[in-house]
Structure formats: C-alpha cells, structure tokens
Amino acid sequence: MKALSPISIIFFFSLMCHHLNYGTTLPFSKVIVWGHKMNGHTHMWIHAAFFRTFAFLGYDVAWLDDNSDLTNIDLSNSLFITEGQADEKIPLRDDCRYVLHNCYSLKYDDLRVQGNVVHLQVYTHKCKNGPVLKTDEYTYIDPESKTIYMPWATDLVPYEIDNMKKIIRYTPKKKECHWVGTLYDGDRFSNYDKLKPFMLALEEHGISFFSERYMSRQENIRLIQKSAVAPAIVGAWQEQEGYIPCRIFKNISYGAMGVTNSKTVYELFNKKIIYNPDTERLCHEALAYIAQMDTKELYELMDFVRDNHTYLNRIDHLLHFINLIKPLNNYQPTRNEYQIGSQ
Asked: What is the pTM assigned to this prediction?
C-alpha cells in the first residue's frame, strides 16, 4: 500500500474509535434504492439485498427507478444507493447523500464537492495499491477519493441463516448441481472455461448440471440446498484479481459446503472450505469430502458468514464511512434489542 496522507491517518483513528453497531438510528428520513428494480440485471440482487436489509433494520425504504412516479414521495434527507447503468433520472438533491457504484457521470460533481457522495467498489487486490486504510478483512477505504472497497455478501440476515440449519437437516440431496447466476463465455471475464471441467467431472459421478437465472430468492435457496455440490467457481480474471463472488457467501448461508477454485476465497474462509485451482480435481475432491463431512464443519462456516458477511456487516461499514466523509446530524451509533439468532 502507498504512504498515507495526514487526513487518512485521522480517518483511521476515527474509524477505530467509532465502530458502528447494528441498530444505528439513521439520520435519514428514507433510504432510496434506485434502479435495477426486478429487471433481471445481475446487480438487481445487490439492490434487493440492500433493500431487504435496511427494511429488516426498521428503516423507511423505497425501491425506485427511472420509471417511478415521484409525485407524492418526499425525498428530502434521503440516502440514495444506485448503480451507473440505472441512474439516468435519479433526483439530485443537496439535502441527500448518495452511495454510487460505477457512476461516472459529471452530474454528481457538485454533490461530490459538498461531501454528499461516497463511491462503493467491490474488493479486488488492486484496491490495496492506493492510499487506502484497512478497516476489516477485505474492506478498505480511501478517504481522499471517498471510496470504500468491500465484497458483496449473502442476502440473508443472521436469524435466517440460523433457520437454514434446521431446514437442511431434512432436505435430501439430489444427483444435481445447480449453478444460479451468470455462465458466460467470450472474453476475459468468461467463467465458462473454468466451469466446463467441473461440469465434465460431475458427469463421471452421474450428477446433472443445471445453469439457471431469473428466479426468486426462495427458489435459489431451494435449488442450492438440494444440490449434491454448490461451487463458487470464478473465471481467470476474477481469480487473478481476487474478486470475491457473492455466490460463496450465499451458498454457505443457504446450507452448502464452500467449494471454490479461488485462493482469495479460500483464504477469506481461513482455509476451511474445499479449494483446488484445477476445477476438474476440485469436483472430485469436493464430492468425496462432502460425503464424509461432519455437519459441525458446515455449521461453523454458516456461523462465520452469519457474523461477518451479511449486508448488516456491509451497511455497518458503509454508514460509518459516510459519516466520516461528512458528519451526519444526530449520528449516535447504539445497539438495539437485535441479537444474533433471533428474529
């Protein structure tokens, strides 16, 4: 990492001394998730997770897009969360804060100058090349560019993960492997060439491979839970750059053993999941290990995701970073009655 400026050092000590707890009373009247409203785009699931988690925490949340009628909606003092392919008609207000992912339009410049904008980027190893501060494993902030880097997460909240432990006890496995999400071939972002050897290895075990998209969260969970194995395989670019797919957090939280060809993902889970960069061998090793695995191992991984990799954790870091960039009125992090494992 590059040398830190004096302002970054100040941010670091502030962050260490003022860690946000779940249950913070937001100094916003409303949280607005803007764009990708059930349109099938892969980022829709990120927005859906933010929406349901803010709602779970008790905040007034709306999911709007460029087609929404804003006539009777009070947008004052709101927190907007959006993405650069879906923000054409987003309202720009100096009484609101904005979390922008891949938004490069000059229209935000005035808001940036006012300190009303932070940029959210997904973690890759390259983020550590700049003047960043490490605030948690795989979470970094750059106060000068107002950017926070972190992975995505599971879309479940903690009590739901605990409930999954009860469900999977009575869910029989099928001779099936369901890949829910993008299966892509064609350029440097392809993952098909890494998945193909895994798919061929599955055939040797009589296991059918299914690639699916555009389904409900409930159906996604059902398919993963009945799969004989549920891998989180990354393409060459993701593997090299250290990209961490949300699939690994989701699959484990739904009750599937972690299986990956990514060294970064393997290390994130403290080397307690199944890893091999050779995806053909990965398949054989995963099926053999899962067949004799103690359920306790899986529960411990689910607990690790529950405690560290839900959108509660991501919102925790995000809101504190917003406050660091420009202090919020009446910002008083407090813990409410919410406890891990309860609804």
From this structure: 0.89
